Amino acid sequence: MEGYSVTLQASLLMHIPIVYVPYLEWRFGAEDTCLVKVKQLDEKTSEIIYDESAIFRDRLQTDNQTGSLTIRDIRTTDSGLYQMYIPGILTELFNVTVYARLPIPVITRESSCLSSSSSSSSSSSSSSSSSSSSSSSSVSSNCSLVCSAVNVSHVTLSWFKGNRLLSSISVSDAISSVSLPLEVEYQDKNPYSCVLNNPISNQTKHLDIIQLCQTYPAFVCYSFTEAVIRLVISALVGVATVSIVAYDITSRRAERKQRTSPPVPE
Hints:
Layout: E1 6-8, E2 23-28, E3 33-40, E4 46-50, E5 60-62, E6 69-71, E7 80-86, E8 90-96, E9 106-109, E10 113-115, H1 116-123, H2 130-140, E11 142-152, E12 156-161, E13 164-170, E14 176-185, E15 192-198, E16 201-206, H3 209-214, E17 219-221, H4 224-260
Parallel strand pairs: 10-17
Antiparallel strand pairs: 1-6, 2-3, 2-7, 3-4, 5-6, 7-8, 9-11, 11-14, 12-13, 12-15, 15-16
C-alpha cells in the first residue's frame, strides 16, 4: 500500500554471503534504469552508489550484508518490474504493484421524486381506483440511494445486505470514479453497507436508512410548463393578496379620518 516500505530480497543471496558477490545492481522498469550499484571492495567494506537523478531519490536503502533493496514511502508510480542483477551469474525479477489508500465510500440519496400526478392522485385517494392507489404507494415506499467513490483504480464497489452480496462493480487501472445504485424500503430495518476494496485493503460505509430516507419526505416534481403555471398563479395570488390588504388599510384609514374630522358648518 502507498506510504509503506517494501524490501526486495533476492533468494540466491539468502544462501550466498554477499562478500562472495563482487558486484550487483538493482534495476527498475522496462528501460532497465539502474537504481543502485553495490561493489564489494573487501570482506568488510562495500561501495554503494545510488542513482541520485532517479524518482526514488532519498527513498532507497541497500543492505550491504544481504544485498536487499528497501523502498521507503512507496508510491503508486513505483509499481513495475525490478531486477536484481549480478553480471554473469544471476538475474532475479520482482513484479511490484503499489495500491493507493482507499477513501471511505459516500452514500447519498438520489434526487428522485414523485410525479405531480402521483402526488395529486394520492391526495385525492377517495376518487382514485385501488390499482392506481397501490401504484402510488409502491413508488413512495422506495428510497433510491447511490454509493460512490472518486479518484480510485483497481477497485471493486459492492452493496451488502448483512453478509449477502447484492451487487458490485469494478474499475480498471485508469483513475476514475465509480458509483453503484440501490433501492430500499423506507421501513427496511436490515443492515446495509457499501464496501470499497482492492486486493489488499477495504473501506466500509454503513447505511443509516433513518437519516437518509425517513428524515426527509419524498420530493414532488413538475414539468417545466406546470412549474411555470404554478409560479404565475402563485404570483397572481400574491399580488391579489397585497392589493386586498392595501385596499383594506386605505378604507380603514379613510373611515377613521371621516369619523374624527369636525362637521362642516352650513
